[in-house]
Amino acid sequence: xxxxxxxxxxxxxxxxxxxxxxxxxxxxxxxxxxxxxxxxxxxxxxxxxxxxxxxxxxxxxxxxxxxxxxxxxxxxxxxxxxxxxxxxxxxxxxxxxxxxxxxxxxxxxxxxxxxxxxxxxxxxxxxxxxxxxxxxxxxxxxxxxxxxxxxxxxxxxxxxxxxxxxxxxxxxx
Length: 173
Known about the structure:
The protein has 173 residues and is an alpha/beta fold.
């Protein structure tokens, strides 16, 4: 069971752990729940944050079922702590010529960059939608990282699957 101090701290969920992703949030008072497909990298990064009450949660694939299970595991690991922030940083790209890309590689990019992002957003919104308002008048925050590839492909790889699937989620005016 979580201590009183633990229960007052909010949870910052990061999907797609890269070098340093999520580590800064632990120093701002959040428990950080790291989600990644690479168990070795996840273990290393989560180990750096263990003293903050943060932890890593592996996922085989970014699917609705996979992410639902991970969010359930986060809630069980940190009972009484509210998930207040979700950051989707996961990505799958194929960096080769158009005619060299296989249908399986396209499907993987769509699964991570579109289906995974949607499933993560859904789980995050379900976790925050009924929370009490903070002193700032907010319940929580949902963030997506991006890259130039979300708006245009690479000149060496004209129709990059990363560009097209990231573009789907890129807000435009």
